[in-house]
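Format notes (please read before filing issues)

Several people have asked whether sequences and structure tokens are stored in separate files. They are not. Every record keeps both together, in the order shown below: the sequence lines, then the token lines. Line labels are part of the format and must not be stripped during preprocessing.
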Amino acid sequence: MSMRKIYRKVARKNGVSIKEVKEEMQKALDYAYTNTPDDGVTEAYQKQVPSKDEIPTPYEFIRYAADKVK
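Then the structure lines:
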């Protein structure tokens, strides 16, 4: 399934736009990456997600998660 279809399906299910889905996902990622506990474990897992910046985009995160599930 393409990313576009995933976003569309989530948006329809929740009665919001695709843009809102992406924005909320980014907010969640931003929060998760800026409010990590100082245990070192969470940060180590976060560093495994390949991204251009310190915080991955929803696309980068979903792609990583999907590859892990396979």
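For reference, the curators noted about this record: The helical segments are 3-14, 18-34, 41-47, 58-69. The longest helix spans residues 18-34.
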